[in-house]
Each structure stands twice: as C-alpha cells, then as structure tokens.
Amino acid sequence: MRRLLLAAAAAIIPGVAAAQAPAPGFTPHLSTEIDIGFYGVGTTSATDRARGGTSIYSFGEIAAGLHLTPNFSLQGVLAFEPIGEGDSTGGTPGGSTTLFRRQSAFLEALYAEWKPDSDTTLQAGRFVAPFGRGHHDFPGILAAVRAHEVYAITDSLGVAATHTAFVDPWWGEHDISAAVFTLDRTFLSSTLLTRRSCCDERYERFNRNTRQQGGPANTGQFDNATIALDGDRFGLLPGFSYHLAVLTRGAGDDGTAREWGYAAAARYQADWSANQSTLFFAEGVQFRNAAARPRTEVTLLGFDPDSGDEIETALETTIRERRTFTTLGLRHRIGEWRGTVAWQRDQRKRSVEALPTENYVEASVGRDILPNVSLDVGYQYARYAREEAGGLGTAHAVLFRLGWRGF
C-alpha cells in the first residue's frame, strides 16, 4: 500500500511543477458548480411520537476548481448537511417543526488533480473514495441521501487515480479507478459551522476526527483501498451503464477485523420518443465485518448456584455484522415532468445486538420551475428500526426538495 502511495505521489509531482508554467494562450481560472437541495420531511404518523413533525434542512455541495494549467488544478468541495443522528433523512422533530437543526458545512474534498493525458486523472489530498454510485446521483428525493449515509466513503486522505482502459464503439467505454487512503484526522475533517451542544448525544459529528473514536480506515496508515470499474456508451446496448467496486478498510482502535465492501450497480435508460424516457436503476452494496467488527459488551442473565438469585454477568465480545443495502427504482420523464419510484432495504445481520431489516418506499414527481431551480414533492412509507423499544416501527411522511443547480 505504501509503495503504491509513494508511486502515485511521485507521478503527481511533475504536474505540480507544470502548474508553474501555464501553456501559451491559457489563462488560469476558477470554475464552480452548485448542487444544493432544501429538504422537507413532514412525518404525518409514526409508531414513535418523536418522529412526528416536520424537519427542514439543506443537503448538497458547492464544488470549485482552480485551473492553473490545462492539465493541473486544485479542486475543493464544500458540503452542507445536518450532522445529527438521522437528521439527513428527517430525524426526530418531536411533533414540532425544526429549521436547519444541527446544520453544518465541511470540506468534503480538497485535492490536487493532474491529467497527464486525456485518459488518465491523478489526485492527491482529501476526497470521497470511488465506491458505489447512487449516493451521488440517485433520482428522487431521499434515495441518494440515504445511500450517502450508508456507503459514501468520505474523510478519505490519500491518492486516487482514474484511467480509461478500453474504448470501443460497440463494446463501450470502461474506466478503472483506484484509491489508497486513511481516515483524515487533520483539521480539515472538522465541521465549519456547527459545534456540539451540551448534553445532546444525537450529534454524530462536531469536531475533527481522532484516533480514539475508532472506526474503519482510522488506522493512521495508508492501508485502506478501493478499486472500481465503470462502463457506459455501449453501441451494443445504448443507454446502459454499470459500476462495480471493492473496498477494504483496516480496523481502528475499537475494531478487531478488516472490513470488506462490495458494490454493484446497473442503469438502463429507454428512450421511447423525443418526449418520453424511462431510467431503470439498481444498486447493491454489502459490507462484511461491517464497522471493522467492533468490540462491545453484552449482559448475560443467570442464577447464583448457591443462593438461586438472578445475577447479571458482563461479557466482552465483538459484533460480527454483514450489512446489505439494496436500491431498486425507476424514473419516468414526460416532457419537463418527471416521476420517480424507489425502494430501499437496509439489512444488518449481527451476531449480537440484533437489528431488524429496514425498508423504505418513496414516490415523487417534479420538474424545473425556474432556470436552475427544481421542485420535487412526494410520499415515503418507512419500516424502521425502533431505537429504544426494539422491533420495527412504521412511518408515513410527505417529502419535498427545492433544488438549486448552477455554476
């Protein structure tokens, strides 16, 4: 791993030098792209009263690139999302209306990018590792957000590369991507707006990452990696694309085994006419030794052999978990209107501290209402894992997303 890291870094250094000598006729410039959504989740009924109410928040990003030469640039992504547990998919408004509760901003990416040729891109810095596709561009309202919460490999500090390995008019274009990284513990991993409130345990993130927090990839070494293969532009099957990826992450201080992840995705767009098309999408992601098999303590009930009284015994063990997240859906377009239906399933098979399988069904319609501004409204039916009572709960919610996309 270390050798690969050093080799990739050595390959990028010439690009840094090249940035000091812009090509004739080239003017260094800044490019930007904005994709921010303002979300509303209004839970009309739920098994747990805390889930009732309305939550309004933002989720999205602003990307910027400083292009110093035609093939060298500095890239950054400023992300916006709520950092409370479950807040990015509605949270627990407790029967009231919450506005931008625990809202935060942070640098999701900041890296140097060099393109030695038209088929190759090299990166070094902080980035989202190439694993899974839906967390970036699933259609609908909450489908992409929920995927992002489960399997976006963020806080990755290291090197990455993408190369177009094969191009054929009939068999399509295929790109291979790879990354070697560690969990970022630098000041760049800290949030920029929100800090933890006293006694509020629902904050999932409020400061820079530390070794003590544990978790997969938090090893302090570049012994974590992903490799992915993407294909599209098939003459054999126009409108089809795929994504395959493998992930491996070492265990942090609280873990006991290496985590492995696998992702497979397929999409097919059928164009029925100039005015109508249907996009079919499917993606499955599985983590084995999820969270790097963390340590935990369970309480066993027994009886004292002498007195016959009931006693409790604490036993230290590990959580062996296989987590599988599945998405199936379609989006149909008629002119400027679009309608999306998506089903997502989060199955977590554990050796101890069992969790039930969650299911979510979402249906929405939407369209652009202004240049670069879109509106989607929909409905969600959820079967979710109850935190304290255990078992499954049911929730019905009305959704909306007001999106702004521009440059």
Number of helices: 3
Mean pLDDT, to the nearest integer, reads 90
What gyration radius follows from the Cα positions, in whole Å? 23 Å
Structural class, from secondary structure content? Answer: mainly beta
- Strands ordered across the widest β-sheet: 1-2-3-5-6-7-8-9-10-11-12-15-16-17-18-19
Separation of termini?
37 Å
> What's the β-strand tally?
19
Largest sheet descriptor: 16 strands, antiparallel, barrel
Shape: globular
Uncertain segments are 4-9, 15-20
Keywords for this structure?
globular; 7% helix; two-stranded antiparallel ribbon; 407 residues; 3 helices; 57% strand; mainly beta; 16-stranded antiparallel beta barrel
Description of the structure:
- The chain is mainly beta and 407 residues long.
- It has helices at residues 2-18, 134-137, 143-151; strands at residues 29-46, 53-69, 72-82, 97-99, 103-117, 120-129, 153-168, 172-183, 224-232, 240-249, 259-271, 276-288, 295-303, 310-318, 321-334, 337-350, 358-370, 373-385, 392-406.
- The chain starts with a helix and ends with a strand.
- Residues 4-9 and 15-20 have low confidence and may be disordered.
In short:
The chain has 407 residues and is mainly beta.
Topology overview:
Layout: H1 2-18, E1 29-46, E2 53-69, E3 72-82, E4 97-99, E5 103-117, E6 120-129, H2 134-137, H3 143-151, E7 153-168, E8 172-183, E9 224-232, E10 240-249, E11 259-271, E12 276-288, E13 295-303, E14 310-318, E15 321-334, E16 337-350, E17 358-370, E18 373-385, E19 392-406
Parallel strand pairs: 2-4
Antiparallel strand pairs: 1-2, 1-19, 2-3, 3-5, 5-6, 6-7, 7-8, 8-9, 9-10, 10-11, 11-12, 12-15, 13-14, 15-16, 16-17, 17-18, 18-19
